[in-house]
Amino acid sequence: MLFTSYEFIAFLCGLFILYYLIPKKFQWILLLVGSAVFYAWAGIRFLAYIGVTTVTTWYAGTRISGIQEAGNAYYDAHKKEMDKEARKAYKADVKKKTRGWFLACLLLNLGILAVVKYTDFVIDNINAIFHGEISFLSFALPMGISFYTFKSMGYLIDVYRGKTKAQSNLAKFALFVSFFPQIIQGPISRYDKLSETLYGEHAFDPVRIRSGLMRIAWGFFKKLVIADRLLAGVKTLSAKPEEYQGAYVVLIILFYAIELYADFTGGIDITIGVGEIFGIKMEENFITPYFSKNINEYWTRWHITMGAWFKDYIFYPLSVSQPMLKLSKWSRDHMGKAVGKRVTVYIANIVVWFATGLWHGAAWNFIVWGMLNCVVTVASYEMEPLYKKFHTALPCTNRGWYDVFQMFRTFWLMGAIRILDVYRNVPTSFKQVGTIFTTGGWGSIFSADVLKLGLTGADYLVVLIGCILMIAVSIVRYRQKDDIRVNFEKRGVVCVSAVILLLVFAVLIFGAYGVGYDATQFIYNQF
Amino acid sequence: MEELLEILSDLHPEVDFTDCDTLIDDKILDSFDIISLITEINSEFDVAIPAEEIVPENFNSAQALYALIEKLQDED
User: Fold this and answer.
1) What is the value of pTM for the model shown?
2) Which of A103, A379, A503, B45 has the most CB atoms at less than 10 Å from its CB?
3) What are the backbone dihedrals phi and psi of residue A520, each rounded to the nearest 5 degrees, phi first?
4) Where are the domains of chain B?
5) Do A329 and B42 touch (CB under 8 A)?
């Protein structure tokens, strides 16, 4: 059930009406039923996968919490009788008892994800290397498996670390895992944050609901008016790489940057807006990413919950693990302080970016995309002292225009790396970027030739106006550090209603749907 | 505390670490800095900071970080 389908709108309306008609204590149960229906819509058989993850993670979580609670109770009652060594040994013993449940559940669920998502990729590579003919297993990919597996494993790690108390109610935990607005493209919520509002009783609050509707309408606008319209241009340009080179590659970088932003952030706007109309608060997944001044900042503003997941659950634990600290010490003793300081960071960075690439898809283009991000983040870290000297020597770099230059540079750098996602082929991607410097054609992209790319003059105009609106909204967000909706809400109900209506009309009139269009799946659904 | 301030100043000489309590909130320390810091602390104080302690509250100020080191030393 696509967010942009009539089925989804009907489903959402029905759920919304029921949600505020039934007794509030049953609201979360209705959301669970709704989430099950939403998931089953993609195929009843897929319920088994999400069911296994839900039940195993819930059970392991309750066992881990149970051991921890019993251990803490005993510790509190007897700590006066224990010396320092005995206390340490007791705590280590409790940790050891929980480790078995933790590792078994983690390996099982990551194993399911690995088998379903990556088996054919491994077979393909084995066949290529050894000239084999092993048949593909062609597992059907359960909807949102990467998202719900990461969400569940984040919960499990938090419980194991003692940061979160396990949810004892299986149905409540099932709602956390399967909550329908975020099942297909995130955000990858943390249990402690989402549970604050997920199970609560929510009164009909017109202000909050109007605000949520505004966000949903803005999401539909970005997806249907901008992203799906530009899709035709991206498809045309990427289908014939030998024909569209040089300046056209710059054009496709620009088109895809806009399309992906409008598509992914539009989907997240719908997700967060849907949450708001039900009174459920979710984390922001994007905060003006294209205004980032360097790649590190970009990754704290783009797909925030995924970046935070990799940072908290892979980068940090790996970097501060005992073997890594020993390696750092050894490097420091044998190769100097500078190497000792860097070695753990760089190894963990390589692992994280490899995993991030692989998480996006079972293909080399995603892995190379991840490794390029790794190279740029490391280069950027190494060049920081140089940048500081440069900025000190040239005071003009403190001015606003230099910030804009840095944003421009980061936008194009990230766009160029993202080209791997467009061509889905590593050699083609590198070759195409190379043609920017070897092949001209700059005149073509400023001529009527651009009207042969699947976009009419009217399409360009609509996209241009859409982009101006997105930039304006982003500037407000960037400057006031708050959503533009606050400004509309201050002006009252008439203003908010007018904005919603304008957006709805804009989607109805300018949306890329109906005859000749096919409202496409959100790009991130495939991950 | 002096040793810790020295380690922090090595990372960012331009920051006054005696006064700042928004090192994470204001993005003065990024994830690379945090790991460099932890390896330095491990080497200087012989304390291993576990991943679950890497939270803004422990890294927002030199004082908070020092309190964490003392707590971990006490546990050891």
Assistant:
1) 0.90
2) A503
3) -90, 165
4) 2-75
5) yes
